[in-house]
């Protein structure tokens, strides 16, 4: 990650023992021009722009659209602080994901926001096509001219630089880059108090999971021993599929791009899931349930295990302990093929997965203001704000180190630390280099989860953020739209028992008929070009 930020392990949950000496000097006064001064040493025209300091003069106003927010989002303290420090007023708009039809309608309308926050790797034809079609700006010269903080970050971190441009070197968005720890944030969750009562260990293999779930059903009378949404079947995470050495989607095996749904092991995984469903171990409604239903089943005792995100652990413990003080949700490791073995797959994102990256629309009237507002996040001061919030409100500096205040640690309204920081910082899903904030939690199980879920061999299989050419991306989209629908249909039919796992071979053939082998050729070529960047 960014070279100017060094992380240390936190030994106490409240005090953050982070090596931030290089950051602190420029973070105590947001109005100091010496703290914020940014001078570009060189640009593509070999010119040296005039010195710039925040806040920007001129009362610039911009509109900002976030893919993750529907409707008109509430203005938070972090938004007000950003405006004060940057001098740029932002009108926050609701948004829509790149894959939603509403996004196409937005482009067609011509009424574009100044800044788009979205997953530009998913744009039809790829980000190069979005630039070519005139919807967003190519940023190379603009970064040289107005974004010294991002430019320095990329110079100091060539691995990040490689990720966020296309094969021809085009920069198309200000990226959200996850920290090393932030790349893993989900996995199996289980009720440890039930295991203790039943004298069972935390399961490590598929056979042990079968034993545990059977006990949950028969001895704890759980109506849905394990519950999860379909997104966790084997695509977003390795889930239970990782124990079979496979997962959904594209990944890499020994330098070759493969598509997990084609592999023989995926059929065996589906056969096992079908048997579990027949035995009543998997939630009978998993094909249609939403997140709120999963939450209710987990916190009420209807289920004893799930696959989900890290913050679920704190949420489930808080809810369940209101009626059962002994409830104890903890992370379980991704299952391995054999006890003591390393699972091939878990959940792991690239540092740059393409999500929450900010492009600037071609209709923006104040391009400099848009660049300056985004570039602030990559400054030392901007990173402190995005990570720890507002000094004197959410943290104080003690001996040069940030220590959270009672607003975060012992919130008077009973809010969890993560809920407070959602109001005062950008901990995730914002164009920036994410830093680890090591938030305190009353549930140590939450912090322990990541170390448990990280123990997989997933890194060796991870396909980097490749960028097929515009023509290749169009062809890929045409092929994969039908194949994605087909694999989801096959999964559900087999797990629900409507079709035998033996029939999965016909779906493999249908994928080939639909062009999956051509899609693999495109991905392989893009992967090899990426390695040469």
From TrEMBL:
<dbReference type="Pfam" id="PF01547">
    <property type="entry name" value="SBP_bac_1"/>
</dbReference>
<protein>
    <submittedName>
        <fullName>Putative aldouronate transport system substrate-binding protein</fullName>
    </submittedName>
</protein>
<keyword id="KW-1003">Cell membrane</keyword>
<keyword id="KW-0564">Palmitate</keyword>
<keyword id="KW-0449">Lipoprotein</keyword>
<keyword id="KW-0472">Membrane</keyword>
<dbReference type="InterPro" id="IPR050490">
    <property type="entry name" value="Bact_solute-bd_prot1"/>
</dbReference>
<dbReference type="InterPro" id="IPR006059">
    <property type="entry name" value="SBP"/>
</dbReference>
<keyword id="KW-0732">Signal</keyword>
<feature type="signal peptide">
    <location>
        <begin position="1"/>
        <end position="30"/>
    </location>
</feature>
């Amino acid at each position: 990650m960014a070279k100017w930020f060094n992380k240390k392990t936190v030994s106490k949950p409240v005090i953050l023992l982070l090596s931030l000496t290089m950051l602190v000097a420029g973070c105590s006064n947001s109005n100091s021009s010496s703290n914020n001064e940014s001078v570009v040493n060189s640009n593509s025209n070999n010119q040296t722009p005039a010195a710039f300091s925040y806040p920007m003069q001129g009362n610039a106003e911009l509109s900002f659209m976030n893919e993750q927010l529907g409707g008109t989002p509430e203005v938070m303290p972090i938004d007000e602080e950003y405006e004060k420090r940057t001098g740029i007023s932002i009108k926050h708009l609701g948004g829509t994901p790149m894959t939603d039809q509403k996004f196409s309608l937005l482009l067609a309308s011509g009424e574009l926001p100044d800044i788009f926050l979205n997953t530009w790797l998913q744009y039809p034809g790829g980000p190069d096509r979005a630039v070519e079609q005139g919807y967003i700006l190519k940023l190379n010269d603009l970064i040289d001219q107005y974004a010294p903080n991002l430019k320095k970050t990329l110079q100091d971190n060539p691995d990040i630089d490689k990720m966020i441009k296309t094969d021809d070197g085009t920069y198309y968005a200000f990226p959200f880059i996850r920290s090393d720890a932030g790349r893993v944030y989900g996995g199996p969750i289980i009720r440890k108090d039930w295991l203790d009562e039943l004298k069972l260990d935390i399961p490590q293999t598929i056979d042990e999971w079968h034993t545990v779930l059977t006990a949950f059903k028969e001895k704890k009378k759980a109506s849905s021993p394990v519950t999860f949404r379909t997104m966790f079947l084997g695509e977003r995470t390795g889930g239970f599929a990782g124990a079979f050495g496979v997962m959904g989607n594209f990944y890499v095996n020994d330098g070759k791009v493969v598509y997990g749904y084609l592999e023989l092991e995926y059929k065996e995984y589906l056969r096992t899931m079908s048997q579990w469903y027949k035995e009543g171990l998997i939630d009978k409604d998993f094909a249609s349930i939403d997140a709120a239903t999963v939450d209710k089943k987990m916190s009420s005792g209807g289920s004893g295990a799930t696959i989900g995100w890290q913050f679920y652990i704190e949420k489930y413990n808080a809810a369940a302990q209101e009626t059962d003080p002994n409830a104890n949700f903890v992370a379980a490791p991704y299952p391995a093929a054999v006890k003591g073995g390393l699972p091939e797959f878990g959940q792991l994102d690239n540092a740059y997965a393409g999500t929450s990256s900010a492009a600037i629309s071609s209709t923006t009237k104040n391009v400099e203001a848009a660049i300056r507002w985004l570039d602030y996040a990559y400054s030392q001061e901007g990173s402190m704000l995005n990570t720890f919030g507002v000094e004197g409100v959410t943290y104080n500096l003690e001996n040069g180190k940030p220590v959270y205040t009672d607003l975060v640690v012992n919130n008077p309204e009973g809010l969890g630390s993560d809920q407070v920081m959602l109001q005062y910082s950008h901990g995730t899903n914002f164009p920036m280099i994410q830093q680890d904030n090591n938030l305190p939690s009353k549930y140590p199980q939450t912090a322990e989860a990541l170390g448990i879920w990280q123990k997989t061999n997933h890194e060796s299989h991870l396909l980097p953020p490749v960028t097929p050419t515009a023509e290749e991306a169009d062809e890929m989209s045409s092929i994969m739209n039908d194949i994605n629908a087909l694999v989801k249909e096959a999964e559900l039919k087999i797990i629900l028992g409507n079709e035998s796992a033996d029939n999965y071979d016909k779906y493999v053939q249908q994928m080939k008929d639909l062009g999956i082998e051509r899609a693999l050729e495109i991905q392989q070529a893009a992967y090899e070009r990426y390695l040469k960047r």
